[in-house]
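# nightly structure sweep
# worker-07 picked up a monomer target from the shared queue
# config: single-sequence mode, recycle default, output format = structure tokens
# input follows
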Amino acid sequence: MFGYIVVNQSELRIREWEMYHSYYCGLCRVLKEKYGRVGQATLSYDMTFLLLLLSGLYEPETVCGESRCLAHPGKKHTYRRNELTEYVADMNMLLTEYKCLDDWKDDRKRLRLLTARILGRRTKEGRERYAGKLDRISDAMEELSRAEERGETDLDAMAGCFGRVMAQIAAVRKDEWEESLQRFGFFLGKFIYLLDAYEDIEEDLKKGRYNPLKERYKFPDFEGECQDILTMMMSACCREFEQLPILDNVEILRNILYSGVWSRYEAVHLARRKSGEEGSES
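# output follows
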């Protein structure tokens, strides 16, 4: 959904990439089975990471198979799915619904509103199944929306709202790992929210949209401050991760958390620096 929590493929072994991709394909299959093509279109690397994390922690019985798909009809691909795949698929759909509604509010794009309504009809069962969790997510999203409307500039408070959303999504069960997963999800959510704001700052200012970094963008140390804040959030996230007793696919997860998550930041940072250099030369 967000595209920030991705692997650094160049640093993965072939077998690690194939393992990662098999969970991605498994999630894709479940999304299609439960929600049709529109569900399949919401597939994201971010939620594949969550599936890999939860599967590594709980080690559920996992089904492995091979199949072709519309995107790759000429070759069979390995897929893996387990009881957690359905949970992640449900969360993926619900988050996408929230995102479409947020996009409609920001840009008034009717297609996003239409998509949200379609998703709303298909996620009714999920909303009933996870009613308590979704109430807490809705509370956090509504608080975030109200704060954006009043132009809140407190970064910690704003990022914390989305951190609470991801805390609920990461903690799949009420068990001994619930609090650890909530803390992990909280810091991951803050990182995602702040990186999204960092990437969108110029476009948001141009279009007059809310961005929590608006005031900081004026200062000469904007880039350094953003990097420091993002590093702090991801360091806290990684500390929580390292406390979890995960052995399966741990190197893939570390690749994502210590390297992959910075791919988008580095691309945006480099493009912004080049733009600044070209501007100063002209």
